[in-house]
Amino acid sequence: MSTVLETSLLRREFGGLTAVNDVTMSVEEGEIYGIVGPNGAGKTTLFNLIAGTVRPTSGQLTLFGERADRLPSYRRSWLGLGRTFQAAQLFSTHTVAQSLRTARGSARRGIRGWLSSHDTDEDRRALDDLLELTGLTKAADSLPSELTNVQQQQLAIGMTVATGARLLLLDEPSGGLIESEVGQLLDFIRGLRDRGLTIVVIDHKMRLMMHLCDRIMVMTAGEELAVGTPHEIASNTAVQDAYLGRKAAALVTSLEEVGHVK
Ligand SMILES: Nc1ncnc2c1ncn2[C@@H]1O[C@H](COP(=O)(O)OP(=O)(O)OP(=O)(O)O)[C@@H](O)[C@H]1O
């Protein structure tokens, strides 16, 4: 197993505010790594630093063993980094299959990618694989507007994988999902990991995070408060104090649930 993402003393200041304060973390291949913390903790800024949309004030970032903190976003994509957002970004006039084909084609061959008449057998096999990975084989001819919210997230993530991403940054994937869809999302993300993808996920739904992640980093005020397995996080008094101080009953409930489950 190799390390696919490493940060060392990664820091970002905005004026007098330190949004990310010397964060050192590492994510192993095939891991589901969660980042949680209260509003303003610096989670999104950390994602932006990893994705390259925000420049670090200081510190280092390594992606797939390559120094990446000075690389533009598109070069990080070439290395295998992909990102999705809470509001799934989809082509409204493309079916599921066309969207996946376009995403794959854009990374491989430019605009010609969407022309099915040019598809080789390998292209067709790759599309079938992507449809299967996305869990949308039966919805291949549906437009995004005909999909459920969780299916739209699956498609957005599938399109990122289609571009060649092997490390996925998922930003609040459960946003906008109804409760019954959250379990489907959990199974879907686990399925991606089972296919060898590495996932770093931010989400406010603590129950989901505690059941989904192999390790979780808790951030407060730009800093790492704790990192560990859900069990370790559940029993960490600094985490409990920080969250209790903020009356985040949802986390405490989730921690207790995980304690009961295992
Ligand atoms: N472009 C910016 N300019 C100035 N301040 C910023 C900028 N981006 C983020 N911040 C500040 O940095 C801090 C961390 O914000 P960030 O969005 O990273 O937190 P977060 O943990 O993702 O919060 P949330 O859960 O609400 O999304 C906040 O105080 C925020 O106001």
UniProtKB/TrEMBL annotation:
InterPro entries on file: AAA+_ATPase, ABC_AA/LPS_Transport, ABC_transporter-like_ATP-bd, BCA_ABC_TP_C, P-loop_NTPase
SMART domains: AAA
Annotated keywords: ATP-binding, Nucleotide-binding, Transport
GO annotation, biological process: D-alanine transmembrane transport; L-alanine transport; L-isoleucine import across plasma membrane; L-valine import across plasma membrane
GO cellular component, one term: plasma membrane
Domain ABC transporter: 4-246
Pfam name, any one: ABC_tran
The keyword Nucleotide-binding belongs to this UniProt entry's keyword annotation: yes
GO function terms (MF aspect): ATP binding; ATP hydrolysis activity; L-isoleucine transmembrane transporter activity; L-phenylalanine transmembrane transporter activity; L-valine transmembrane transporter activity
Taxonomic superkingdom: Bacteria
Gene3D superfamilies per record: P-loop containing nucleotide triphosphate hydrolases (3.40.50.300)
PANTHER family: AMINO ACID ABC TRANSPORTER ATP-BINDING PROTEIN (PTHR45772:SF7), CONSERVED COMPONENT OF ABC TRANSPORTER FOR NATURAL AMINO ACIDS-RELATED (PTHR45772)
Name recorded for this polypeptide: ABC transporter ATP-binding protein
Species this protein is from: Nocardioides seonyuensis
